[in-house]
């Protein structure tokens, strides 16, 4: 009986020792993670991960994490060595392909990143992270058509992927080199003006490697008088995070339009699907009106939330305008419902000539909705807006707007 117990002890001892080693490796792995995420001490975390691997050499999760640690510590050669060793071992974990391709992408090795991503998608065709990273790589290389294909595949897998929707909106604006558009705005006033307003805008957009440019011509019939305006806008990209808005306009028909208008904004695509903008707008009728604008936006699942303000200072006081917008995206970046509510008049609106004579300091309430949908390369929009405008001190009137739009990309 004693011999039998001794024999069983000999058999079970290696298993018990292996379990103890793996348990110790797990503890070191957990400590390495806490050190990296909580203390940002990557050097110590690397040492702990290497110690864990000495106890469990084939612990794939630790090896992948070690590759990530080298990446975060900017030791690209060591990170690549870890990932290449895992590749030789035939590792096909989804996290391995994500970590390896991310390292190459963050170090601007986009060709190498795509090679790893494509291999990963062969093994994990429904990986949202890999499809998203593929879209980012193509977007960084200005390959907008390929980026659009990747992001469309991801949205088929998960239409509520927040980061994918945010990137899709940016890609859609750049995926076609050319776009022509027409927009019509109708305004009816119950008290402020006797005649309805009609405004038509025709635009041409050209996408280049440095950003997009838009040339627009506007025709207006306001106060039973006709007028025209020409505008030029540009959206140059500064980096993966930042881009500019630069715009200007000119009209000889002052009163229907400002004689001059200019605007510049710095825009940022921030982590966690946030975006922000800060800049100015200037309108010149017979005097300059300077407005300073700021906005913050957030994508969450199928929704986009945005809050924008315009601040107009003068010698006596400061005028404020606030607008909140919510969009609900349906099947793509060009298909959504939008709801808007706010106070004050925006210089981006077709009624911006009401900013003359300091009426922008009077109180305005607005509420409206919009529906956008696309059919292949054709985009359509329908919007309506209600304004309750204090057009003279203590005198208010109502305004009803309807807007129709069409854009063709090619």
Automatic annotation (TrEMBL):
<keyword id="KW-0732">Signal</keyword>
<dbReference type="InterPro" id="IPR019734">
    <property type="entry name" value="TPR_rpt"/>
</dbReference>
<dbReference type="Pfam" id="PF19413">
    <property type="entry name" value="YaiO"/>
</dbReference>
<protein>
    <submittedName>
        <fullName>YaiO family outer membrane beta-barrel protein</fullName>
    </submittedName>
</protein>
<dbReference type="Pfam" id="PF14559">
    <property type="entry name" value="TPR_19"/>
</dbReference>
<dbReference type="InterPro" id="IPR030887">
    <property type="entry name" value="Beta-barrel_YaiO"/>
</dbReference>
<feature type="domain" description="YaiO beta-barrel">
    <location>
        <begin position="177"/>
        <end position="349"/>
    </location>
</feature>
<feature type="repeat" description="TPR">
    <location>
        <begin position="128"/>
        <end position="161"/>
    </location>
</feature>
<keyword id="KW-0802">TPR repeat</keyword>
<dbReference type="InterPro" id="IPR011990">
    <property type="entry name" value="TPR-like_helical_dom_sf"/>
</dbReference>
<feature type="signal peptide">
    <location>
        <begin position="1"/>
        <end position="21"/>
    </location>
</feature>
């Amino acid at each position: 009986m004693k011999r039998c117990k001794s024999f069983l002890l000999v058999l079970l001892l290696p298993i018990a020792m292996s379990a103890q080693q793996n348990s110790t490796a797990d503890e070191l792995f957990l400590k390495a993670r806490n050190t990296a995420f909580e203390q940002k001490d990557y050097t110590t975390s690397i040492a702990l991960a290497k110690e864990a691997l000495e106890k469990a050499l084939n612990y794939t999760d630790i090896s992948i994490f070690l590759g990530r640690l080298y990446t975060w510590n900017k030791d690209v050669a060591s990170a690549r060595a870890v990932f290449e060793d895992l590749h030789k071992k035939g590792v096909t974990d989804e996290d391995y392909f994500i970590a390896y391709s991310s390292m190459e992408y963050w170090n601007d090795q986009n060709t190498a990143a795509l090679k790893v991503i494509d291999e990963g998608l062969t093994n994990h065709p429904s990986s949202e992270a890999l499809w998203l990273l593929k879209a980012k790589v193509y977007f960084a290389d200005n390959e907008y058509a390929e980026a659009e294909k990747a992001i469309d595949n991801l949205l088929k897998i998960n239409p509520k992927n927040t980061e994918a929707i945010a990137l899709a909106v940016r890609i859609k604006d750049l995926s076609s080199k050319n776009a022509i558009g027409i927009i019509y705005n109708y305004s009816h006033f119950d008290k402020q003006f006797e005649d309805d307003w009609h405004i038509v805008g025709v635009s041409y957009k050209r996408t280049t490697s440095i950003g997009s440019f838009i040339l627009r011509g506007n025709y207006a019939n306001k106060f039973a008088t006709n007028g025209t305006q020409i505008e030029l806008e540009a959206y140059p990209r500064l980096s993966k995070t930042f881009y500019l808005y630069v715009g200007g306009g000119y009209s000889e028909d002052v009163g229907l339009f400002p004689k001059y208008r200019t605007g510049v904004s710095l825009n940022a695509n921030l982590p966690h699907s946030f975006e922000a903008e800060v800049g100015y707008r200037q309108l010149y009728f017979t005097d300059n009106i300077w407005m300073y604008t700021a906005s913050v936006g957030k994508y969450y699942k199928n929704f986009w939330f945005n809050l924008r303000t315009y601040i107009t200072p003068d010698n006596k006081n400061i005028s404020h305008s606030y607008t909140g917008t919510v969009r609900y995206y349906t099947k793509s970046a060009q298909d959504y419902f939008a709801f808007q509510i706010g106070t004050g008049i925006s210089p981006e609106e077709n009624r911006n000539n009401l900013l003359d004579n300091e009426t922008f300091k009077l109180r305005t309430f607005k509420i409206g909705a919009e529906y956008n949908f696309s059919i292949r390369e054709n985009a359509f929009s329908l919007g309506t807006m209600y304004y309750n405008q204090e057009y003279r001190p203590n005198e208010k009137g109502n305004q009803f707007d309807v807007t129709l739009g069409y854009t063709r990309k090619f």
